[in-house]
Specification:
With about 160 residues, the chain is mainly α. It folds into 2 domains: about 70 residues; about 70 residues, no CATH class. Helix content is about 65%, strand content about 0%. It starts with a helix and ends with a helix. About 10% of the residues are buried.
């Protein structure tokens, strides 16, 4: 069985994306992590398209040639698609309760930890939703939710 270049390139791209999506969707997203993730994605795309060191190409040109976006944008879009799925679930489901649950007690003195939930609450402002209630109402219409996620993230 032999594979042509495009089949191998697609397979490499799928394997690379699936392994990076899981960690990035559910773990912290610091700015330096996003930079490293985007850099890794570009290196993989250049390897797949056989762009070597002496050939210079801009990042935008690379994304245009491969018909992709930066990994951080792809992950943010998928994260919000998943949140839309959670917000459409039954209000008593564990996943939906965990989304807005706040632990009791106090934290130690230090800089507040960047949690998944705090990242999501910061990104709520991108969509012009101030509260979870507004996001829940918007998530009820799937087509509008998808379109809102795609347009807000790409800008």
């Amino acid at each position: 069985m032999s594979f042509n270049f495009y089949q191998v390139a697609r397979l490499e791209h799928v394997v690379q994306q699936s392994s990076t999506y899981f960690r990035a969707l559910y773990y912290l997203s610091y700015f330096t992590d996003k930079q490293k993730l985007n850099r890794f994605h570009r290196v993989c795309l250049k390897r797949i398209t056989r762009i070597k060191w002496p050939m210079k190409i801009s990042n935008e040109e690379l994304y245009r040639r491969t018909n992709t976006k930066p990994m951080s944008e792809i992950i943010r879009e998928r994260r919000w698609r998943y949140i839309g799925h959670i917000l459409r679930r039954d209000p008593r489901s564990h996943v939906r309760v965990a989304l807005t649950w706040k632990p009791e007690g106090k934290r130690k003195r230090s800089r507040p930890k960047e949690t998944w939930r705090r990242t999501i609450e910061k990104e709520l402002k991108l969509f012009d939703w101030g509260t979870w209630r507004e996001a829940r109402q918007a998530a009820q219409d799937r087509a509008v939710w998808r379109q809102t996620c795609r347009t807000s993230i790409s800008t």
